[in-house]
Amino acid sequence: MSRYRAVLFDAYGTLIRLDRPAARLTEAAGRRWGRALAPAEAADAVRAEIDHYAAGCQTAANEPSLHALRLDCARILTAHIGVETGDDDALALLRETIVLQPYPDAADALDAVRSAGADTAVVSNGDWSLAGALADAGLAVDAVVDSATAGAAKPDPEIFHRALDLLGVVASEALHVGDSEATDGVGARAAGIAVVIVDRSPSPRPGAIGSLSELAGLLA
């Protein structure tokens, strides 16, 4: 059995990731408009879209506001690759470019937590569609708290308190797993929650785990 009653997870960079967005953008631009993108051009366009989404995702707390944010993101992509097109084609390009996939170790890590008798939650900066994105990725958790509907974003400890309340546990009974010390680490510790940072780089930082597969050994 786990020494924790609940394990909270960050979403982006921890459980799910973007699947080759620059390559997908390059393929879509060539297929749709015959536009040949240099690797740096595609990477710059994707980075601009990601930055805009990250800055605005907290405003997307319902379907209309999410649609507006997605349209802005789509227009950023088309502007950066030098294509003039209508909203429908721009949104289609965004859908083809921004595709979320689960990390290979994500589902097994959630299973390990459940097998240890602990509840699971996702606490992440993102828009209100996060629960659906996780479900589409085949990842089931007991609760999802996104910053848009919570009205608080990491590292604000309030977003972590919201997850604890949903699960009916206190901070000392929970562990948070994320990929960012600045948001996950600082925010969870401020809420009184223990933290594990996952660092999938070739040389994980001291004290971090290199894969979610190491999580099971930390629960006992």
Walk me through what this model shows.
The protein is of the alpha/beta class and 220 residues long. It has ten helices and seven strands. It has helices at residues 21-33, 39-56, 63-80, 87-97, 106-115, 130-136, 147-150, 157-167, 181-190, 215-219, and strands spanning 6-9, 16-18, 100-102, 119-124, 143-146, 174-178, 194-197. The strands form two sheets. Strands 5-4-1-6-7 form a five-stranded parallel sheet. Strands 2-3 form a two-stranded antiparallel ribbon. The longest helix is centred in the first third of the chain and has 18 residues, at 39-56. The termini are close together.
Count, helices: 10
Q: Which structural class fits the helix and strand makeup?
A: alpha/beta
Report the average pLDDT across residues: 97
How do the helices and strands follow one another from N- to C-terminus?
EEHHHHEHEHEHHEHEH
| Biggest sheet: strand arrangement | 5-4-1-6-7
- In terms of DSSP E residues, the strand content is 5-15%
Q: What Rg is obtained from the alpha carbons, in whole angstroms?
A: 18 Å
Shape, per Cα inertia axes: elongated
Per DSSP E runs of 2 or more residues, the count of β-strands stands at 7
**How is the quaternary structure best described?**
single chain
Biggest pleated-sheet summary? 5 strands, parallel
For the terminal residues, how far apart are their CA atoms? 6 Å
Task: Report the helical percentage.
Answer: 40-55%
User: Residue ranges: pLDDT <50 for 5 or more in a row?
Assistant: none
